[in-house]
Amino acid sequence: MVLASLALLLLAYVPGAALAWAATAPGSRARYALLGVSPALTLGVVGAAFGWSGALGLDWSALTILLIEVVVAVAAMAARADRGGGRRGGHGGSGPPAADRRTT
Known about the structure:
Elements: H1 2-23, H2 29-36, H3 38-55, H4 62-82
């Protein structure tokens, strides 16, 4: 019973938290707000996608949509990490830092 409750909590929290992490800047108020409501974010995205899948004639279950959301969240996190994670003080990832762009 405890293990099932923990699994359900993780399934509700992790996809929304991953989307919140990937979509917001580090240390921003929006990130903390979205992390706090990430279960609602997860269930809202799954619910909206479930409704639209029926309207589009697709016969997807809520579990299939949740798995698709997890894949999208992981891809968004990988894209965020690939472009430098939005760190403050960085050079943005387009070429060398300004200190190395000297003309002689």
